[in-house]
Amino acid sequence: MNFIQTRGEDVSKPQTVTFSQAILAPIASFGGLYVPESLPELGEAFLRKHLNSSYKVLAADMLSRFEIDIEQSVIDEALALYDKFDDASNPVPVVKVKENLYVSELYHGPTRAFKDMALQPFGVVLSSIAQKNNQNYLILAATSGDTGPAALETFKNRANVQVACLYPDGGTSDVQRLQMVTEDAKNLKVIGINGVFDDAQNALKRLLASESFNHALKEKNVLLSAANSVNFGRIIFQIIYHIHSYLELVRQSAISFGEKVYLNVPSGNFGNALGAYYAWKMGLYVEKIIISSNENNVLTKLIKTGKYDLRDSAVVSTTSPAMDILKSSNVERILFDMFGCVRTRELMESLELNHYYELTSVELETLRECFDADFCNGEEGKAYIKDTFTNDGYLMDPHTATCFKSFKTCSNPAIKTIVYSTAEWTKFSPVIANALSGEVDSEDIVALESISKTAKLEIPAMIKGLFSKKIAQDVIIEKEDIEKEILKFI
Ligand SMILES: *Cc1c(COP(=O)(O)O)cnc(C)c1O
Q1: Residue 44, CA atoms < 13 Å, CB-side half-sphere
Q2: Domain total for the chain?
Q3: Rounded CA gap, 58 and 46, in Å?
Q4: 134 is a domain residue
């Protein structure tokens, strides 16, 4: 299958590209993105066939329908990484939390957040393409806390790939920072910046576009790429678990085959939600996709009013920091799918130039046939964490908690909901300890032990071990010095 461009074509790029090409250079004409030329139609037969399949068997068959230019042995090696999740026989458990509400847990991988679902296999795929092409890649990552650890974990010691990971010093949780600075593989460089996440992100964008930086890398025989979530190589692995979660509900006799469900997704850059949309288009039985946000509620406003409005907005820091995003990149792929490339380019250019766009009423209706949305503030989120723990015996993180508000406000109570849980409690423990027992400003290790006692849960070994692991990466610099530091590393 080939990939086409969301904003149409200028002359600078080939009209269509292969999957490998879309992965290595993810930015298309006019700053657009790559999308599959068409989505494979799975149909009822596919879903029935996999009613009793393992995650890996389902994944392999779904990927084969995309007919991508990656060898089967590489795909098998990539999918084998799901064997290292907590339960090799089911990397994504789906549990009933209350009447009509089921939680699909996407955080059972090595770094305890859902980024592992896509980045784990993606690391194998990207490294294999680099080896096959006999090229060396520098992958840049800027992180507010979850992408960095997952990217380092997947690329460590892989051939033909080096990673430079930028994080805001003091802007992540202790656990997230330790996950990064204790990584000691030779091909990884972790750089703390005196600044906030936006400084790291802006530095990354500047370097990706910098001719002198690209030139300096070329002299060392290194090409530049990024591991952010606009990369279709990540999206393709985020379709599978939506299908898996639905089939789990059928297996658990929670629904009958063919019954429609809500998919409720805590959203930031919209990768997870886009995977849900593609699964639906490919034939999954979905009533609606519910988009859950925190106080950075641009997506709620878009879906409620048709207006994407950043004119008076600044990102606010919340208790669910992985969703503190205003420019939600993957919405563009939905616009393309619904309204075509001419309109997508028009809307995205308006967003860039005027920080604003507005859908027509007909377009808004089309969007609302598929999506509904609501947002949840930090105090409400903490109340859901406490109530759900007290009344249902289920412990969840602050990102997952945002879905419990929209579950109430956006769903028909007679229809079942799958909520996606994107992080384990261990990654955001101070907020959860505060929600459960009122503790304020605890360090992670104190909060972890307090929750462990209250909820009678073991702290997983890979989290506990972080606090006694050797610090291997101790660089903290001013943002002006990033380029120099990376070139020193290469
Ligand atoms: C990345 C992340 C999200 C947002 O996912 P998107 O695909 O960017 O919408 C939500 N929760 C957690 C914990 C995350 O790490």
Answers
A1: 3
A2: 1
A3: 9
A4: no
- 252 alpha carbon to ligand 1 midpoint, in Å? 27
> How large a percentage of the chain has pLDDT more than 70?
100
Q: To test the ligand 1 pocket, which listed residue (265, 269, 397) has its Cβ within 8 A of the most ligand atoms? A: 269
Assess if residue 203 is contained within a domain.
Answer: no
Q: What is the pTM of this model?
A: 0.96
> What domain range is 347 assigned to?
80-113+235-467
Distance CA 107, CA 114 (A): 5
CA of 425 relative to ligand 1 center, distance in Å:
14
**Å from CA of 266 to ligand 1 middle:** 7
**CATH code of the domain covering residue 421:** 3.40.50.1100
Mean pLDDT for the stretch of residues 317-340: 95
Q: Is residue 216 classed exposed, middle or buried when 0-12, 13-18 and 19+ CB atoms within 10 A define those classes?
A: middle
Is residue 2 a part of any domain in this protein?
no
Residues with CB under 6 A from ligand 1: 113-115, 146, 229, 266-273, 322-323, 399, 422-423
269 Cα nearest atom in ligand 1: 8
pLDDT for res 313: 84
Residue 323 CA, ligand 1 centroid: distance in Å? 6
Q: Please state the atom number of ligand 1 nearest to the C-alpha of residue 270.
A: 9
CB contact set of 420 (below 8 Å; sequence gap of 6+) = 103, 104, 106, 114, 245, 263, 264, 265, 266, 272, 400, 403
Mean pLDDT of 52-58: 97
**Distance in angstroms (rounded) separating the CA atoms of residues 98 and 287:** 19
Q: For residue range 425-475, what is the model confidence (pLDDT) as tens digits? A: 999 999 999 999 999 988 999 999 999 999 999 999 999 999 999 999 999
Q: Ligand 1 centroid to 97 CA: how many Å? A: 21
Report residue 154 as tokens.
Answer: 């997947």
Residue 418 included in any domain: yes
